[in-house]
Structures are given as C-alpha cells and as structure tokens.
Amino acid sequence: AANGRLLALFGICIALYFYTQRFILLTAITEVESILNGIRVQMADRIRRTDLEALEHLGRSEIFGVVARETQNISQAAATLVMALQATMMVIFSVAYLAILSKTAFFITVVVASVSITLHLRRLKALTAMLGEAQRKENEFLTLLTHLIEGFKEVRMRRSRSTDLFQDLREVSVSVQEIKTATGSEFS
C-alpha cells in the first residue's frame, strides 16, 4: 500500500513538473514575443525618423540583418533561458540533496562542476568570436543580395556582371556555411 501511494505521488509530481514547465515556457514565450513586437515597431519608427544619409551609411542589408537576426536570437533564447533556469534549480536542489547524503560526493561534484564551467566559459568566448565573424559574413551576403536586387536590370543585361556578382554571393555563402559548421562543431 505504501509503495502504491509513493508511486502515485511520484506520478503526480512528474505530471505537475511537466505542466508547470509548459506553463512557464508558454508564458515566457508570450512575454518575449510581446516585447519583441514593441522593439520591432520602435526600430521601424526610428528608421522612419532617421535622415537619409545615416540610413545610406548603414546600408539596407545591415539594417535588415540586424533587425531579423537579433529579434530571432532573442525569441529563440527565451525558451532556452527558461529551460536553463529550470535546470539550474534542479541542479541546485540535487546538489543540496547530495550534500545531505554524502559530503565527499558533494565536494567532488562541486570541484568537477567548477572546473567544467570554467573550461566551458573560456571556450564560449572563442565561439562568440566565431559567431561574430559569421554574422559579418551574413551581412556581406545580404549586401551582395541587395546589390543583385537593386541592380537587377543591369545584372540581366550584362552577363559578366551577373556572373561576377553570383560568384561573390556563392563564395560568401560558402564562407558563412564553413564558419557556422565549424562553430556548431566546436559547440557540440
């Protein structure tokens, strides 16, 4: 009877955990998307009020790239952040429980985790630099794509210009692929 009751209690705890996890994730996503909507509208308003010289200096591809990429990154990070916070809480409570069970196991766990976190944070700096390079290359690709679209008539009329521009687009795209593949490989 006691085992059945413990099993039922365990099942209830698991169901409650999944329900609260889903609720928190949906709430976070809803709030983040609401904030991002405000940011997008605010950026569009700032662009609308900016003088032409400043816009031309930045370039369309840079503006499009930043707006699209950054809002997408924030949107994707929301779910990750919520899950990371939940995982952190789980680890804290698990380590506290481990300290109650065995002081030796607790100290070994803390030392191994500290070393692992330190190594991970060092590696993260290098990965951030690689991602920055990938973003610069993506902006370069968007600039070339903008040239293609804006100069479409010229590109269609001049075969050599079309070939050169397409070759540049291809090379930059391959560069983005290589950098992102290397970054993904290092991250994994």
Write down the overall geometry: elongated
Instruction: List the total number of helices.
Output: 6
SS class = mainly alpha
**Helical coverage, percent range:** over 70%
Q: What does this molecule look like?
A:
This protein is mostly helical and about 190 residues long. It contains six helices and no strands. The protein has helices at about 1-50, 50-60, 60-100, 105-150, 150-155, 160-185. Helix 1 (about 1-50) runs antiparallel to helix 3 (about 60-100), helix 3 (about 60-100) packs antiparallel against helix 4 (about 105-150) and helix 4 (about 105-150) packs antiparallel against helix 6. The longest helix has about 50 residues, at about 1-50. The two termini are about 45 Å apart. The model has no long low-confidence stretch (mean pLDDT about 80).
Helix-strand layout with pairing:
Layout: H1 2-49, H2 52-58, H3 60-101, H4 103-150, H5 152-157, H6 159-187
Helix pairs in contact: 1-3, 3-4, 4-6
Key words describing this protein structure:
96% helix; mainly alpha; single chain; 6 helices
Question: What's a concise summary of this model?
Answer:
The protein is mainly α. The chain is built from 6 helices and no strands. The model has no long low-confidence stretch (mean pLDDT 81).
